[in-house]
């Protein structure tokens, strides 16, 4: 992932992504209000659902600028497996892997990402995301900011609209 000073800059963008903004919808607001304050305490189960599989995306320079970080323009990959492991890749950060589980109300809880855990001294970071599927693809929305400040994982997961391989 990125150096600590880049993480601080990314945190500003994360605040904009997860704050109360114009992108709020009633469903998103309901999901946000019902998320426990501690992401680590959310009950989870083994993943199952339409989100499992190999996903890809590509962000143009303009899309990356609009998302908040032009350096993320390029190719993205996300593999969500039934065993609760995942791998990610983008051209800026490179590959990473970790674990995820299913929460209630279309939530996925991501943790133990080797790229994120570097910044937490090995104590781990946890992030909670809402998933939706449409004809356009899989969309992930951050509900609870990463406990370890791992803005790289948040950007990796929420910027693209994921297309099935």
Notes on the protein architecture:
- With 165 residues, this protein is an alpha+beta fold.
- The two termini are 25 Å apart.
- The longest helix is centred in the first third of the chain and has 15 residues, at 4-18.
- It has helices at 4-18, 26-33, 61-67, 114-117, 151-158; strands at 53-59, 74-80, 85-90, 94-103, 107-111, 126-134, 137-144, 163-164.
- The protein has a single domain (4-164), classed as Lipocalin (Beta Barrel), CATH 2.40.128.
- Helix 1 crosses helix 5.
- It has an 8-stranded antiparallel sheet, with helices on both faces.
- It contains 5 helices and 8 strands.
- The model is unreliable at 1-37 (pLDDT under 50).
Q: Looking at CATH, which topology would you report?
A: Lipocalin
- Pattern of helices and strands: HHEHEEEEHEEHE
Using only C-alpha atoms, the radius of gyration works out to 15 Å
Number of strands: 8
Percentage of β-strand residues: 25-35%
Count of the domains: 1
Low-confidence stretches: 1-37
The 3D shape can be described as: globular
Mean pLDDT: 77
Number of helices: 5
Instruction: Give the C-level CATH assignment.
Output: Mainly Beta
Largest sheet: 8 strands, antiparallel
Distance between the amino and carboxyl termini: 25 Å
- Assign a percent range to the helix content: 25-40%
CATH architecture: Beta Barrel
């Amino acid at each position: 992932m990125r150096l600590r000073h880049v993480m601080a800059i990314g945190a500003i963008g994360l605040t904009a992504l997860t704050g109360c903004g114009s992108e709020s919808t009633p469903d998103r607001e309901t999901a946000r209000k019902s998320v426990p304050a501690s992401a680590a305490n959310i009950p989870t189960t083994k993943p199952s659902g339409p989100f499992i599989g190999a996903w890809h995306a590509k962000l143009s320079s303009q899309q990356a600028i609009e998302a908040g970080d032009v350096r993320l323009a390029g190719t993205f990959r996300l593999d969500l497996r039934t065993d609760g492991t995942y791998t990610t890749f983008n051209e800026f950060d490179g590959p990473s892997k970790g674990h995820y589980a299913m929460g209630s109300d279309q939530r996925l809880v991501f943790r133990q990402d080797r790229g994120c855990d570097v910044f937490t001294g090995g104590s781990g970071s946890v992030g909670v995301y809402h998933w939706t599927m449409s004809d356009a693809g899989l969309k992930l929305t951050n509900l609870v900011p990463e406990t370890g400040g791992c803005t790289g994982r948040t950007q990796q997961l929420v910027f693209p609209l994921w297309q099935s391989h």
